[in-house]
Amino acid sequence: MKKLILKYCLQNAVFYGGKANPKAVLGKVLAERPELRGKVSEVGKEIEEAVKKVNTMSLDEQKRELEKIAPELMVKEEKEEKDLPEIPKAEKGKVITRFAPAPTGPLHISHVLRAVTINYLYAKKYKGRFFVRIDDTDPATAEEEFYDMILEDLEALNIKPDKVFIQSGRMERYYKYAEEMIRKGLFYVCFCRAEKFRELKLKKKECECRESSGVREWKEMLKGNYKEGEAVVRMKTSMKEENPVLRDPPMLRISEHPHPRKGKKYKVWPLYNYASVIDDHEMGITHIFRGKEHENNTRIQERVYMYMGWKTPMVINFGMIHLPGMKLHKRDIKEMIRSGKFSGWDDIRLHTVRALLRRGFVPEALEKTAIQCGLSKSDIRFTWEILEGHNRKIIDSRANRYMVVIEPVRISIQNAPETEKVEIDLHPSFPERGKKTVPVNTEKVFVSKEDFEKFKGKEVRLKGMGNVKLGKTAEYTGNKIKREMQKIQWVSEPNVRVEILTPEKTLTGLGEPEMKKLKTGEIIQMERTGFGRVDGVKEKVTVCFAHK
Fold this sequence. Notes:
elongated, 4 domains, six-stranded mixed beta sheet, Rossmann fold, Glutamyl-tRNA Synthetase, domain 2, 17 helices
């Protein structure tokens, strides 16, 4: 039974980031040995002991042990990797999707897990085209720096749009269609103050402007003869519509705020529901994927399509993604960057694409997470473990291993064989990558404070060097590898200072001197600490922490 438990503990740990889950192991054991169901309490205790032992091993050690005792379990028994489901009205080569961000900030994880990736992948799935349309028709919120930042984020995610459009460059198109609709009596210029129109809408009453304004008033708007808030172009529906949002919704309004790219050239700006219809039609968009919070916008846009006499694209709504932890609006982040509380949009405490990539999350992991989130209309409570799991599987084989000790404690080792260095594989699963040289000075060996306090007085293995009874003066006890013995990382002299930036705090320690050879952008694994991306190598090595 112990061997059975051990192999399933190892398998579970190998498949899930180095930490075995007792409940999952119990399920496997009982499935293979149903007769043990009457001894669940006894089996559970044995599993707890095995899990404790397995979880002290490194992931590489777990893999080697599993391969030795049960190599058949190295292959994960799971369904085919989840793919995007088929969608209605999708013909190969004819699907055109779009992503329409506003230049109010860079991209963040919510964009990636939904709108960006889903639209892009469906265009690829059907060998169609994917457009990016910068929605900058609100002069008060659009900012010049974010136009390029959005495109840079897409490039960093390996997302290549077939075409990029800027809405503020299409103003004459919006004006042309607006005038046509006014001439047809389907749009009108409304002079009601916002409060007054709100009251009329609640009472389901029409305003006097519906029949008394037309092209002349529209021309006056374009000339700038009305101030912001004095005139709005509305679509003429019915003020008795059951859905209040359909009661004469606004299509264009006046904004006197200077535009970052157009200055004060235009005073009349299209609203989202109007500009989207014009652009989606002219760009041939066939499928629109967006959050269910846009369902009212979809209703309004359907009406605009009907008035224009155009075919409505296929709209697929998905649920919201609720992120754990810090909830900050872009305006708050901007202020905190200006005040110095955040270092920039790539500050690793943020959920921006820049911050995630800086930490060592790779585009493929973000894509796989987006696919897993899928198109469900149910809201999803996102957990970081999902993204971390995908990222770990991808980078585990890429990341070379280095030893880093946090809050180093100096020890000296007695009776150790004389040696000036040891050589250890850069990656235990890929010996062909070569070895790294770790210098040894037995009078000056450093281990982490956590390990020193936890294992003081016990026999441990200093990885690659040998076994010691741990203490300020440690006693060398040989070089025999004992499976049950705790393995800890260490460095000696010379070494390099290491700073690990995590979202919660900054950790300091010492690392192997070969870490000085690392390049900015390399993803590494700091043994028993976790994965991270090298942020800089100068007098010290700075690493942004990704995850365990």
